[in-house]
Amino acid sequence: MEGVFITFEGIEGAGKSTQAKRLYQFLTDKGIKTILTREPGGTKTGKKIREILLSKTEELFPPVAELFLYEADRNFHVHNIIKPYLKKGYIVISDRFIDSTLAYQGYARGLDIKLIKKLNEIASEGIKPDITFLIDIPVKEGMKRIKREKDRIENEDLQFHYRLREGFLKIAQEEKNRIFVIDGTDSEEKIFQQILEILKNRNII
Predict the structure, then answer these.
(1) Does 14 carry a binding-site annotation?
(2) Fewest CB within 10 A of the end CB: N or C in the chain?
(3) Total-model pTM
(4) Which domains, and CATH codes, for the chain?
(5) 178, 177, 173, 180: which is closest to 195 by C-alpha?
(6) Residue 82 marked as a ligand binder
(7) Is a pLDDT exceeding 80 seen at residue 32?
(8) 42 in helix, strand or coil?
(9) Residue 204: helix, strand or coil by DSSP?
(10) Mean pLDDT, to the nearest integer, of 16-21?
(11) Is 11 annotated for ligand binding?
C-alpha cells in the first residue's frame, strides 16, 4: 500500500515545526506508521547542506547557488527517505518541501518561477504532497517568536519576509485542493484540531 505525504509550510516563526511534531506524535501514539522529516537536512548529507545554507558567511551567497543546494538536498531526501517510506505505506510528514523553494527562492529572492518549478519537479522526481498545511502569520509576529540567534535566512530584511509570505499565499491560492491555509495566530491547540479535522475529512486518518 502506498503511503501518504503530508507537508507543513510557512514563514519563519509560523509554528509549522511544532504542528508537524504534534501530528507525528498523535499518529505514532495511535500506532500508525509515521515518519517525521524536514528540508533542508532530512538526511545525513542533507544535514551538511543545511549547515551551509543556514550559516552566516563572509562570502556573497548567490541566490542561484542557494537554489541548487536546496534542490540537491531535496533529491537526497526523496531517494533516501520520502520514496522508501511511502513505498512501505508510511505517513511521511515533512517540515518544508517544494513550496518553500518556490516561496523563498522564487517570490522572495526573485528567481524565475518557471525555472524553480522545473527544478522542483526534477529534484522531487515528480513527487508532490497529498496535502499541505500552510501556517500563516503576520511577518512581525513571526519575527517576534524567534528567541534564539537568527540564522542566515531569518536575518534577511523585513521586505524579504513580506515577499515570502505573499509568495506562500499566492501558491496556496493556485493549489486550493492541496494546500490548506491555517491562521497561525490561533492557539496551538486550536490549530492542531483544525489540522486533524481536515485530515479526517480527507479520509487520511
Answers:
(1) yes
(2) N
(3) 0.95
(4) 4-201 (3.40.50.300)
(5) 180
(6) no
(7) yes
(8) coil
(9) coil
(10) 97
(11) yes
Burial of 148 (0-12, 13-18, 19+ CB in 10 A): exposed
d(CA 157, CA 53): 17
DSSP class of residue 181 equals: E
Any known ligand binding at 2? no
Closest CA to 127 of 66, 79, 198: 79
Q: Which amino acid is at 58?
A: E
137 is in an annotated binding site: no
Looking up cell 502506498, which residue turns up? 2
For residue 142, say whether it is annotated as part of any ligand binding site. no
| Residues pairing with 183 in the sheet | 136
How long, in residues, is the chain? 205
What are 152's three cell numbers?
542566515
126 is in an annotated binding site: no
The C-alpha atoms of residue 68 and residue 15 are separated, in whole angstroms, by 26
Residue with cell 501558491: 171
Q: Is 106 annotated as a binding residue?
A: no
How far apart, in whole angstroms, are the C-alpha atoms of residue 202 and residue 111?
34
Q: Report residue 74 as a C-alpha cell.
A: 531535496
The average confidence (pLDDT) of the chain is: 96
